Amino acid sequence: MNSPVAVHASAETDPGAAGRELGAAHGEAIRRTCATYARLFAAHGLHPHHVRDHARAALSEIGSWAPHLAEEIEGIAHGCGLPVWRVGAVNARTEILAAADVTGEGECSTSVVLPGDGEPPRTVQTWDWHDILGGAMLVRTLVSPSGRAIATFTEHGVVGKIGVNDLGLGVHFNVLRHRSDGGRAGVPVHVVARRVLEEAATVDEALRIAATARLSASTVLTVVTRDEARCLELSPAGIGEVAPREGFLTHTNHFLAPELADGERTSAAESSTFERHAWLAGKAPALSAADPTARARALCAHRDDAAPVCAHADLALPEHRRWETLATISLDVTARTMHVHPGGPCAVGEESWLTVPAARPR
Predict the structure, then answer these.
(1) According to a count of CB atoms within 10 Å of the terminal CB, is the N or C end of the chain lower?
(2) Would you state the torsion angle of the CA atoms of residues 36, 143, 60, 23, taken in this order, to the nearest 10 degrees?
(3) Class assignment of domain 12-99?
(4) Pairing of strands 238-242, 229-235
(5) CATH 3.60.60.10 residue ranges in the chain?
(6) Nearest CA among 284, 316, 305, 273 for reference residue 128
């Protein structure tokens, strides 16, 4: 059964007040998400004191790079009654797991087609993560301190992830793993995605924003506008860029930019990322469909179909080793709208989408 996606709409532009509002409204879910991550960290051998110290260091980095988002995180913690470092830990969960040298099967497969002839981009991605975090999904509509309206799919307590802004820029999000990951805590990649959504109107602006963050973990932001799409592979070793080929751009969970690929930390023995990327390469016609439901159904491939783009948890495995496609997401950057289906492509239907505009809540 698919987990529901919670929704929170806010017109509050003061970061601390917006965080407190969110924390109060979704306190139980945020506390539950933080507790689940604590269990996940422990299963990977991380002591709570190490998680706390890393989270506090990450909060310091956020405070220097995006002070208003540090204020928002503090507000979320106060609103839901948790220590600030606990909420900091879920925002820095990618960095904490990278510091512990954690690898795994997932996550995520992304496709963007630029049809040309004035037609809008066609985008879709799966969001694969641990099945125990199915209840952590949250869609937020919010207004930045500068007045930018944003719709973002994220997790309870995490400031942002995938989304679209009212300037017509969208961001897809896939984790990567590089040999330069780890060490002293950097700016969390989820915070980078949120700030890109707040400030960027073009792919080049997104790149300039991301380039100012000192990172300690890797990810790829696939940034899309009406006329352009590019994968920005972020890592502590630098940023690689991947452009579409004949209007088609795909990414899974390994580096494609040659200058970073030599530092790849994920292997075919532990991840399906290489299989999924190869499978996507032959699906351009189906992924070009104007209808997001048709695009989502084009991602319906399981292990027996050659690549687990649509992942289902193996309940025989321990919970920290289980992966599932928890959501399928499409962005319409021309309509400034995000479509979210709770679950994998094999369950998507015309009526299963949650459609959320990047607009000021009324």
Answers:
(1) C
(2) -40
(3) mainly alpha
(4) antiparallel
(5) 110-357
(6) 273
Beta bridge partners of 342: 327
The amino acid at 212: T
Give the span between the Cα atoms of 165 and 297, in whole angstroms: 25
Pair type for strands 137-143 and 6-9:
parallel
Q: What architecture does CATH give domain 110-357?
A: 4-Layer Sandwich (3.60)
Cβ(67)–Cβ(187) under 8 Å? no
Which of 190, 193, 1 minimizes the C-alpha distance to 93? Answer: 190
The closest of 294, 292, 309, 300 to 354, measured between CA atoms, is 292
Residue 288: DSSP 8-state: T
Residue 166 has which token pair?
Answer: 């009212």
What is the chain's mean pLDDT, rounded?
95
Can you give the length of the chain in residues?
362
**Could you tell me where in the chain the CATH 1.10.10 domains are found?**
12-99
Residue 110, token pair as written in the block: 């992304």
148 neighbors 162 (Cβ within 8 angstroms)? no
pLDDT of 180 over the 60 cut: yes
Per residue in 202-221, pLDDT (tens digit) is 999 999 999 999 999 999 99
Cα distances (angstroms) measured from residue 320 to each of 53, 108, 334: 22, 17, 38
Q: State which amino acid sits at residue 187.
A: V
Phi, psi of 360 (to 5 degrees): -60, 130
Q: E strands of the chain, at which residues? A: 6-9, 110-113, 122-129, 137-143, 149-155, 162-165, 170-176, 218-224, 229-235, 238-242, 248-251, 324-332, 337-342, 354-357
Q: Kind and range of the H or E element at 38?
A: helix 27-43
Place of tokens 């960027």: 200
**Phi, psi for 106 (deg, rounded to 5):** -70, -170
Is pLDDT at 1 greater than 60 in this prediction? no
Lowest mean pLDDT among 200-204, 251-255, 357-361: 357-361
**258 Cβ neighbours under 8 A, 6+ residues apart:** 240
pLDDT tens for each residue of 29-88: 999 999 999 999 999 999 999 999 999 999 999 999 999 999 999 999 999 999 999 999
Alpha carbon distance 129, 134 (integer Å): 8
